[in-house]
Amino acid sequence: MFLKGENRPMFERRLLDNIAAAVPEECGRVGTSPRPGMVVLHPERATDVLAARMRDVFGVATVQPALSVPKRLDLITEAALGELRARFGDPGDTSRTFAVRAHRRDKSFPMTSPQLAVHLGAQVQAATGWSVDLSDPEVTLIVEIDHREAFVSVQRLTGAGGLPVGASGRAVVLLSGGFDSPVAAHRAMRRGLSCDFVHVTGAPYTGPSSAYKAYAVVRRLSRHQPRTRLWVAPLGRAQRALASSTEQDLRTVAQRRLMLRLAEEIAGRVGADALVTGDSLGQVASQTLSNIAAVDAACRLPVLRPLLGWDKEEIIAEARRLGTAEISELADEDCCTLLAPRRPATRSTPQALARIERRVGAEDLVENVLAEAEEFTFPATEGGDHASTARLRTAS
Fold it and tell me: The whole model's pTM is what?
């Protein structure tokens, strides 16, 4: 966000809202103090869970658990030695190496940053017998002199980065049971898009296994935004209607267009401005350039494809890093295989597909599917065990 200009306050307000929504209940009341370039949280009850949750908030570059102490050299030194003892125990192993990183935001503090680092380094060395290594230390003591207080820390964690969710608008993600769409959703959220999800099943001709997977994936991704919604829509009857009115090789592309129409209708009801898919160019028959263009012609909203240039190995590796791969690997009954053609077309035209849709009554099919869709709402806490459910027509 440091790259933003006059509109930076908008991003910061959104970030503060997302941070507040992500605070775990076990921390009690948490005071929030925005500072230039950072936000200081003062929890009523400090737990490791707070730092872990803050690492899931997009827009946060680093998370640093720290002690807050008055700006007195003796108190800073005492806090530094206390933090080292609390984390590493009483000095016994003198073979460790360490470094002190001091930063003075308050220039009225009587010692410069290098002077403070040298002083604290001498105190740590005398108390522990550790050796100084400024290049690759095993332990790093971080001291920051802010305008109101000093912060002492021995831990600096990498945050999620990106932009605050919601700062770039809202989108609806078409969520399949595979590896691709969860990764695409994560990339979209990281760029500030607040994402809702729609998953289509082959019900009533397939079982609920794919819906369970979608629920688990959204539950995992819901940690990154204040509120997440998933719609599960049964597409089986609409697929049969398409199959009876469509040339066999065009079934897959016709189904994709129907899914986009469905997602666009949901987007209109929730105020989303774009759709997101996990398409990767040329990965399967429906993702050739010709078929992508034919599918996009079915809707008015822009269709974002964060993984367009990724290959399958890259996508699976990212899914493993995110923790969604284990879910995607579970067996399910994928609606895309229901009535799938033996040889799907790699080229199609919007005109040919539009004629099929007029013949089958695509708009009525979408309305019928939406009438049976279920909505699940997830909180911004890991696990999302209290997800609520409602019919789409009621929620809208």
Answer: 0.89
